[in-house]
Each structure stands twice: as structure tokens, then as C-alpha cells.
Design goal:
The complex is a heterodimer of chains A (about 110) and B (about 110). Chain A is an all-beta fold. Chain A contains no helices and 11 strands. Chain B is about 0% helix and about 50% strand. Chain B contains no helices and 11 strands. Chain B is globular. Classes of the chains: A mainly beta (about 110), B mainly beta (about 110).
Chain lengths: ~110, ~110
């Protein structure tokens, strides 16, 4: 069964304390992995797409990496404004779902204290 | 300025009433989606449409209905048959051949 699991569920950091969020996936034939940021009461905001193992993408203090089984979202020297829930998602594998649909993890809620 | 709009932002209804949530996009995307988000449950797919005049049930379609008469619009009706309709509803769209979805701001529905 296609599955996306994010850990930890919640992460509290002090401002400037770097850390990583994990997204592990089990799908046959990965066709992309997507990271989103969601602020409370708002819709998810698209951050990154990763397609192949070894690929990396960066945006400000965020860097996303991909292996054959998982993706990491590294947050370097975070600021309070980085506080949000971070979601990852993948399309269903070769034998499941309709093209275009995404399977979402439950997210990691990040809190950065000043 | 391209994007997805959802209206209203907050919606209150009495139990037993049907209610329709609006979703409009000007991104020229072919596919549109409706999700429901509850605390601790993540995003769950209600309905999706890959093309005008066609749509498919997602994982939790019972008690919901949709239409796709125009490329830009994908309204969701929450019917009185939906047993637990209070939730945050998100609409999304994606372009042809692309998996990444772009989301609207959401509608928070409260039914009492």
C-alpha cells in the first residue's frame, strides 16, 4: 500500500537551532515528492518538487533532499517566522490511484521560539 | 495575478441544510481537487476532476457532491447526508501533466 509518513509530529526549536524533518514513503515508481508549508487557518503553500534520489532544492533557510526511501527538509538557523506545519506528498505508485492525485503525510508542526 | 480563490472563508450552517462551497481558479489548470482537513487526520481527498464535465470520487465522497461545468470552477456541496461536516475544506488545482497541486486559502465550515 502506498504510504507517506512524516516525523516527528511536532518539533520545537529555539531560534537559530538547526534541525531536520523526515518524510518516508513507500510507493512503486516515484513520480515526484512535494513539500508544502501550511500556516494555521490557511491553505498549503507549495515549496519544492524533488524527482530523483540525490536531488536537492533550496529556498532561504530550507533545503530539501531525496533518497530512494525518504526525504528530509533541513532547516538552517530557523527564525520564528518559519513556524508552520510542513507537509510532504507523493503521487500514487504505478498500480494505484489516478494520475494527478497526491498522497499526503500528516505533517510536522514546527515551532520556533525566539 | 493567477491563483485559486475559495469563498466564503467562514461558513456556518444548521444541521440538515445543504451548503455549497465555491472554488475558482485562473491558472488555466485542467485538474481540480477537494480535500477535507481535520486535526490529526491530514488531508483527505473528497472529489477530483481531471477535465470539464467529468469527476471522480476520492477517499471520503459520501455525503458530498460536485460539478465541473467550467474549467475555472469546481463547487462542492456538503449535503445533509454528511454525518460530520464541520471541517476545514481545501480546493486545489494542477496543470496537465503535472503532479504538484496549488491550494486555495480554504473554507472553514461549522455545522451546529
Amino acid at each position: 500500500e502506498d504510504q507517506v509518513t512524516q516525523s516527528p509530529e511536532a518539533l520545537r526549536l529555539q531560534e537559530g537551532e538547526s534541525s531536520s524533518l523526515n518524510c518516508s514513503y513507500t510507493v512503486s515508481g516515484l513520480r515526484g515528492l512535494f513539500w508544502y508549508r501550511q500556516d494555521p487557518g490557511k491553505g498549503p503553500e507549495f515549496l519544492f518538487t524533488l524527482y530523483s534520489a540525490g536531488e536537492e532544492k533550496e529556498k532561504e533557510r530550507l533545503k530539501a533532499t531525496l533518497t530512494k526511501k525518504e526525504s528530509f527538509l533541513h532547516i538552517t538557523a530557523p527564525k520564528p517566522e518559519d513556524s508552520a506545519t510542513y507537509l510532504c506528498a507523493v503521487p500514487p505508485g504505478n498500480y494505484g490511484g489516478s494520475q494527478g492525485n497526491l498522497i499526503f503525510g500528516k505533517g510536522t508542526k514546527l515551532s520556533v521560539k525566539p | 495575478d493567477g491563483g485559486i480563490t475559495q469563498s466564503p472563508k467562514y461558513l456556518f450552517r444548521k444541521e440538515g441544510q445543504n451548503v455549497t462551497l465555491s472554488c475558482e481558479q485562473n491558472l488555466n489548470h485542467d485538474a481540480m481537487y477537494w480535500y477535507r482537513q481535520d486535526p490529526g487526520q491530514g488531508l483527505r481527498l473528497i472529489y477530483y476532476s481531471q477535465i470539464v464535465n467529468d469527476f471522480q470520487k476520492g477517499d471520503i465522497a459520501e455525503g458530498y457532491s460536485v460539478s465541473r461545468e467550467k474549467k475555472e470552477s469546481f463547487p462542492l456541496t456538503v449535503t445533509s447526508a454528511q454525518k460530520n461536516p464541520t471541517a476545514f475544506y481545501l480546493c486545489a488545482s494542477s496543470g496537465a501533466g503535472h503532479y504538484e497541486q496549488y491550494f486555495g486559502p480554504g473554507t472553514r465550515l461549522t455545522v451546529t
